[in-house]
Structures are given as structure tokens and as C-alpha cells.
Design the sequence.
């Protein structure tokens, strides 16, 4: 019997990155197949090829032995492939039933009006198959993230999905929700659905999956029955080198405290957050999605105004809720969403680099063009930003170079404290290494760095101290020696 | 790849300029009256009012906003200036009062957008109606005429043979150009338009930048109102109706993106020239005015469609 999905020799190139080169992947009906790899290893790209979001440059795809081309997500749906994305694709203001039947509501003859009763029944059936206790009439926005995910799976089932791709499904779930999801996945597999489970959580693989395929830097490392591998083996396969090499951690003497945060609170976001950052220190901040890490850091950088709390730099107290005040005192933040919050899209590299220091370049009311160009050239050279020139639009740079532009903008202000929120998300391995080295250089100069990252090995590899957050509170503060993957995960899940 | 991108940008910058040359060449061939010094000065003088308003509109559109109230602001400023002047106020004070009205209405727009969180389209639509209504109230619906010499000269005078409106337009364009390209706040306008969230993270005072763009647009609309008062030797209660469309058309023809962050005031001047030349040329060719509207709309759509294709 032919495999449910058979991908052969899939290659995909993006400007500056070979995202996939000659990857093979096979999914059998009724199996839960883990797809494992670091960020940027090519997991998501491979699945986006299967989901019709990207077209591969090379390679073939067969479904039940039939060669297919999947140029659009709509075609993928026709072929029975459903993609449950990390960011859920639901219409928040519509009801559960409307979402499950989105785009193809049942109609009533003769006028073709929506048959609400049939819609509710369709939704009910799909939800029952999952054993989900969700009200079909509730607006989706009112549900927990876990239940929203079940709604999305129910929609996939009502479309007769035979292949279910789940991208880090448990990243934002509570323990109970994750257990529920695992049960649902097992039942679906027993019904013959093939599930591809993208994750970098090893425990889940051993609990749930029957096969595991490992990718690294866009190539296939191997595909193994889960019963024949150990966590250590998988880590070695996934990383392909020693952790110490990946994270060039420099020995830097840790100095006096520079940043002191006390009792920072914003109701609904974070509660009573206190911590200290010292000179020469990299403070890692770990936690699951939605733990409030970015929100706290935005408050420290003045982008959001906390309801209460104090922020002190040295002996000076910094006014809350003002980016200008934070920057003037030497606190800057590289935000997590590079395109949405970092870059002035469509503007030149020069303008992006100078925007935070323009006022210091002014002479008699006008910006000194020569000084501005010199500043841009110096930062481009310093950070090795690869661009055809300073007038190039930032939109044309690779992710890693865009990130360096945002970093360079803040280095121009000569900050004392740098908050880096997911600084290496979605950038290639080479650029990551450069950013790590740069962080090392900055702490050597006596600056302090706060590193917020969902990439746990990154936090453990680079940080001198790790702060763990769970539901808006700091649940652990671990020294470099204490901080292990399990310790951090325990605190991050609130146990 | 680099050369290609730069060429694209180059062509995009030159596109509107090329259009002016092409339309100019066509009109010179079709009508012997077009390419004469007096007619060209005439075109420029007719263009100047729209160009001045459009300079303001450029700033607002660069922030990804829109200002529909420019025509009504022009009318109210014109009426107040004329009313005060006729009532015996010193003409310069009357003009300053008119500009002050523009500043207040612009500030009002800016605060509605930033403090009130009202979408620019709706905020300025409201201001448009209020200012038009106030104009009608103030004038009683009748023109105010017989301006003092100083006000007349702003619209109808000459400096070394060049009409004053053209001189004012040139000064405004230069100032706005320098402001947008060589001062921090000008750069902030581009930054806010290209990505307001990133601008906020970069410590740019987004609300102040937006308010300033609307305020300056109000002042420039008022300035256009003063010039119009001088040129007509009167203030008309219906003056400037539809001016927002001409200004937006000039900005868009000049290559400024309605999505904000891209474009500039030089393109806008060229856009205003294209519209002015079309008006003038169609007049010279004796095209009935009803058809002129159709032609103008068609040219604008074709220009923007070509521009989109090039991108």
C-alpha cells in the first residue's frame, strides 16, 4: 500500500538562504510523525510546501501514490491536507459553528439562505468526534487557546482531512489542554488520519509519536521509529555539534547592578515583576508563549506604561511609559517582531540606522547629511551588515541583516542596557552566530543585555542568569549552573 | 539585482516628470497658444493654489492619513480674512487671522486623529462639514468683496514680473521639501507613515508628528485661501469645494503612496502641474468643461494604474 504522503528531494531557496535541500519525507496513514529540528532547520518550510503555501524549487510529492502538485492552500485542502498553524486562523468574532463551516455554510433551498440548524449540527458532529465540550454558538474569541485549537482541528475534520499538520500545537497550551490535545491526536490517528507533529519538545515525541524525522539546516538527518531512539541521540542529531560551539559564551567579569526593576505590574499582563541586571551580564528570560515576557520588557523600554512599579538605572529613577526617557537613560529594546515593530519598511538602511539619533545630528535645525551618512557607514561596517549600500531599502535585506539594522539603530544611541526580544527568530545559522558574537562584544564593553527567547538552548547557552516567567509572574531565577532544560520548563509551566 | 532595483526607483521618480513632458509636447503640437511665456505663467498661477494645498496633503498622506477638510478650511480662512479686512482690520493682521484659523482647524484634525482615535477620513470629513458650515454662517452665504491692495497683491500682484502666487508656491515647496528631507520631524513623518508601530518602538513621538502634519496642512490650506481671496478680490462661501480631490490627485499622480511612507513633495508639484496643464490644454482645445472632468479623472486613473504595474 502506498504511503499517505511521500515527498522526495524537496528543495527550496529564499534570497540568501537555502531553506531546504533535497529533503525526503514519508507519512503513513494512522501514524503520528514528529518533525524535529532547531528553529530555521526547515521544518516549517517543508510543511508549507506540503500545505501549498510555498512551491518547491525541486522535488515531487505523492499522495496515496498519486503524483500531485500543490500550488495553493486551496489545493492542499482538496487533497485532504489540513495545516493547523501556530497562529490560529480563526475569525474571532464569529461563532464556533460559523468558523467550522467557514467559507462553505450549509444552504437552505430554494433561496440559498444559510441553514443555521444544519451548521450547528455539522459543528456539533465535528466537535463530538474530538470529544470537545465547546458550545457551537460561542464566539471563538471567548474560548481558551486550547479550545480554539480544537475548533480549528474540527474545521479540518469537517473538510475530510486525512493529513493533519500541527505546528508546535502545545506551545501556548496549559498542561491539561496539552493532555487533551494528545488524546485527540491519538484518537484521530486510530481513525487512520496521518498527523505530522512539528515540535522541539522531546518529551512530547516520546509520549505521543511513533516516528520522528530530524531536519538540520535544511537537510534531512534521518527518520527513525521513536522506539529505537533516545532523547540524547535526537539532540545530537538535531544539533549536530556541541552546544558550546553553538553559543560562543565569553567569560566576562560581572560588575555592579545597572538596571533595577521593582514590582512592575500591569493588570492582565504581568504582576509584581522585580529583577536586577548587572554590568557585563546576559540575563536570559524564558517562558512559554503568553507568559508576559515581552510585555514586561516593553514596559521596561517605555513602549508600554505599567500601572505601578519602579525602574532605576544606576541611582536615577526613570519615568515610566516613555521610550524617549528610556533611550535617554540608556535603555533600548530590539522588539520581537522585526517587520512589524522594528523596521521602517520601505525606507533606506541609512534612515533606519539614524532615526533614533537624528536630533543629535542636527545643526541649525537641519540634519547634517555628511554626519548621517558617516554614521550609517560606520554601523554597516561595525555590524557587517550585508547591503549593496546605505541607500538600499531595508525591505530587500535578509532577516539577519534586517535584525542587525535594528540593533545598529540602538547601538548608535550608546545604550547601557539592551533588551533583545527573540533576536534570532527566523534568521539563518550564520547570522545567528554573528549576533551571538556581537552580544559577547557588548557585554565585554560593560553593557548589560536582557535576552528574551523561546529558543531554550539559546537562553541556556548564553545567559549568566535565567529568569523564568509563567502567567505574568517570575516563577524562578536560576544561575547558569542551576539552569537546566527541565528546571526552566518546570518553572515555565508553573509547577 | 541592485542595479535593477535602483533603476526601478529611478524610473518611478522620473515617471511623473516624463508625463509632464509628454503632455506638454502633445499640447504644444495641438495648440500654438500653449507654449508661450504668458500661457505657461498662467498655468503656473492656476496651479499654485492646488500645489500649495497639495504640499500639505503630501505630508498627511505620507503619514498614511488623508485630509478631506482642506477645501473648507480654505473657504473659512478666506472668509475670515476678507471679513476682517473689509471691516477695517489691518490687512496683514487679517491674513494672520486667516492663517490662524487654518492652524486651529488643522490642530483640531490632528487631535481628533491622535487623541480621539478617529480615523483620518472620518475626522476630516467632519471638519470639512463644520468649516463649510461656519463659512456659510460667517458670510451669510454671500461673497465678501473689495479687498484692500495688500490682500489683492497676494493673489494678483507681481514680483519682478512673476505672479506672487507662483513665488509663494515656490517658497512653500522649498520649505516643505527641506522640512521633509532635512529635519528630524520631517523624517519622523516618513517613519510614522512607513510603520507606525516601529516608529513608536523607536521613540518617535508619533502623536505629535501626526498632529503637526495636520496642523501644517491646515495652515497651507489657509494660505491658499488668502491667495484665492486676493486673486478673486473677494471671498466666496463656496470657494474650494472639491479642492481636496485635486490635491489628493496631485499627490497620488506625484507618486506618493496612499499607504504612507513613500513619496515626496517634488512629485506632488509635478502632479499638480499635470492637472494644471490638462485643465489649461483642454481649455485651449475648446473641450467643454463637462468633458474636461471626465478626461481629468481618466488621466489620473491611467497614471496610477501604470504606476501600480511598474511596482
Sequence:
Amino acid at each position: 500500500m502506498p504511503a499517505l504522503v511521500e515527498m522526495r528531494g524537496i528543495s527550496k531557496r529564499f534570497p540568501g538562504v537555502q531553506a531546504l535541500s533535497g529533503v525526503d519525507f514519508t507519512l503513513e496513514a494512522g501514524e503520528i510523525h514528529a518533525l524535529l529540528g532547531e528553529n530555521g532547520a526547515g521544518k516549517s518550510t517543508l510543511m508549507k510546501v506540503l500545505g501549498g503555501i510555498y512551491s518547491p524549487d525541486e522535488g515531487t510529492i505523492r499522495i496515496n501514490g498519486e503524483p500531485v502538485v500543490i500550488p495553493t492552500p486551496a489545493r492542499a485542502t482538496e487533497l485532504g491536507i489540513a495545516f493547523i498553524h501556530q497562529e490560529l486562523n480563526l475569525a474571532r468574532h464569529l461563532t464556533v459553528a460559523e468558523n467550522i463551516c467557514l467559507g462553505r455554510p450549509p444552504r437552505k433551498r430554494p433561496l440559498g439562505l444559510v441553514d443555521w440548524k444544519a451548521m450547528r449540527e455539522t459543528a456539533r458532529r465535528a466537535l463530538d468526534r474530538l470529544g470537545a465540550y465547546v458550545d457551537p454558538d460561542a464566539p471563538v474569541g471567548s474560548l481558551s487557546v486550547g479550545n480554539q485549537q480544537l475548533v480549528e482541528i474540527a474545521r479540518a475534520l469537517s473538510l475530510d482531512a486525512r493529513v493533519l499538520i500541527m505546528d508546535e500545537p502545545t506551545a501556548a497550551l496549559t498542561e491539561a489542554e496539552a493532555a487533551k490535545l494528545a488524546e485527540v491526536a491519538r484518537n484521530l490517528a486510530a481513525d487512520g488520519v496521518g498527523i505530522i507533529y512539528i515540535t522541539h519538545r522531546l518529551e512530547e515525541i516520546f509520549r505521543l509519536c511513533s516516528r520522528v524525522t530530524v531536519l538540520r539546516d535544511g537537510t534531512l538527518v534521518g527518520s527513525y521509529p521513536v522506539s529505537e531512539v533516545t532523547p540524547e541521540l535526537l539532540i545530537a542529531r538535531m544539533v549536530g555539534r556541541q552546544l558550546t560551539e553553538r553559543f560562543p559564551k565569553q567569560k566576562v567579569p560581572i560588575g555592579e547592578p545597572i538596571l533595577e526593576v521593582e514590582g512592575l505590574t500591569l493588570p492582565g499582563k504581568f504582576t509584581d515583576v522585580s529583577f536586577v541586571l548587572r554590568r557585563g551580564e546576559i540575563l536570559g528570560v524564558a517562558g512559554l508563549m503568553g507568559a508576559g515576557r515581552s510585555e514586561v520588557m516593553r514596559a521596561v523600554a517605555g513602549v508600554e506604561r505599567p500601572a505601578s512599579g519602579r525602574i532605576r538605572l544606576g541611582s536615577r529613577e526613570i519615568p515610566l511609559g516613555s521610550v524617549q526617557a528610556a533611550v535617554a537613560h540608556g535603555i533600548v529594546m530590539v522588539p520581537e517582531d522585526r517587520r512589524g515593530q522594528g523596521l521602517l519598511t520601505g525606507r533606506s538602511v541609512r534612515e533606519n540606522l539614524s532615526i533614533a539619533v537624528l536630533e543629535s545630528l542636527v545643526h541649525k535645525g537641519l540634519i547634517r547629511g555628511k554626519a548621517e551618512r558617516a554614521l550609517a557607514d560606520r554601523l554597516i561596517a561595525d555590524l557587517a551588515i550585508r547591503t549593496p549600500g546605505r541607500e538600499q531599502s531595508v525591505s530587500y535585506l535578509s532577516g539577519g541583516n534586517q535584525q542587525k539594522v535594528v540593533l545598529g539603530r540602538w547601538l548608535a544611541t550608546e545604550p547601557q542596557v539592551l533588551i533583545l526580544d527573540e533576536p534570532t527568530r527566523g534568521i539563518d545559522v550564520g547570522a545567528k552566530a554573528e549576533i551571538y558574537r556581537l552580544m559577547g562584544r557588548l557585554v565585554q564593553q560593560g553593557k548589560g543585555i536582557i535576552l528574551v527567547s523561546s529558543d531554550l538552548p539559546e537562553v541556556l547557552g548564553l545567559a549568566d542568569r535565567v529568569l523564568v516567567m509563567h502567567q505574568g509572574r517570575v516563577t524562578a531565577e536560576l544561575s547558569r549552573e542551576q539552569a537546566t532544560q527541565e528546571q526552566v520548563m518546570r518553572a515555565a509551566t508553573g509547577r | 539585482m541592485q542595479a535593477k532595483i535602483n533603476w526601478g526607483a529611478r524610473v518611478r521618480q522620473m515617471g511623473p516628470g516624463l508625463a509632464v513632458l509628454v503632455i506638454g509636447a502633445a499640447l504644444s503640437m495641438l495648440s500654438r497658444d500653449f507654449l508661450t511665456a504668458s500661457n505657461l505663467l498662467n498655468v503656473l498661477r492656476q496651479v499654485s493654489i492646488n500645489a500649495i494645498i497639495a504640499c500639505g496633503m503630501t505630508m498627511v498622506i505620507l503619514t498614511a492619513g488623508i485630509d478631506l477638510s482642506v477645501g473648507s478650511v480654505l473657504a473659512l480662512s478666506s472668509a475670515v480674512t476678507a471679513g476682517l479686512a473689509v471691516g477695517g482690520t489691518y490687512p496683514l493682521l487679517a491674513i494672520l487671522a486667516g492663517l490662524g484659523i487654518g492652524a486651529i482647524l488643522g490642530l483640531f484634525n490632528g487631535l481628533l486623529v491622535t487623541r480621539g482615535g478617529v480615523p483620518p477620513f472620518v475626522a476630516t470629513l467632519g471638519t470639512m462639514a463644520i468649516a463649510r458650515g461656519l463659512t456659510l454662517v460667517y458670510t451669510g452665504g454671500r461673497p465678501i468683496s473689495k479687498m484692500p491692495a495688500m490682500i489683492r497683491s497676494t493673489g494678483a500682484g507681481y514680483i519682478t514680473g512673476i505672479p506672487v502666487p507662483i513665488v509663494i508656491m515656490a517658497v512653500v515647496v522649498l520649505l516643505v521639501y527641506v522640512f521633509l528631507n532635512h529635519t528630524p520631524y520631517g523624517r519622523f513623518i516618513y517613519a510614522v507613515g512607513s510603520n507606525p508601530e516601529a516608529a513608536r518602538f523607536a521613540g518617535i513621538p508619533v502623536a505629535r508628528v501626526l498632529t503637526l502634519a495636520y496642523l501644517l496642512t491646515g495652515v497651507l490650506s489657509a494660505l491658499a485661501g488668502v491667495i484665492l481671496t486676493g486673486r478673486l478680490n473677494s471671498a466666496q462661501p463656496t470657494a474650494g469645494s472639491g479642492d481636496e480631490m485635486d490635491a489628493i490627485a496631485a499627490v497620488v499622480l506625484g507618486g506618493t503612496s496612499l499607504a504612507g511612507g513613500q513619496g515626496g513633495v517634488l512629485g506632488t508639484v509635478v502632479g499638480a502641474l499635470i492637472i494644471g496643464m490638462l485643465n489649461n490644454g483642454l481649455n485651449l482645445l475648446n473641450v467643454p468643461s463637462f468633458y474636461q472632468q471626465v478626461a481629468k479623472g481618466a488621466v489620473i486613473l491611467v497614471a496610477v494604474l501604470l504606476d501600480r504595474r511598474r511596482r
Observations:
- Strands of chain B lie at 144-145, 158-159, 162-163, 234-235.
- The interface with chain A takes residues 2, 5, 178, 182-184, 187-188, 190-191, 194-195, 197-205, 261-262 of chain B (CB under 8 Å).
- The first strand of chain B starts at residue 144 and ends at 145.
- Residues 1-5 of chain B have pLDDT under 50 and may be disordered.
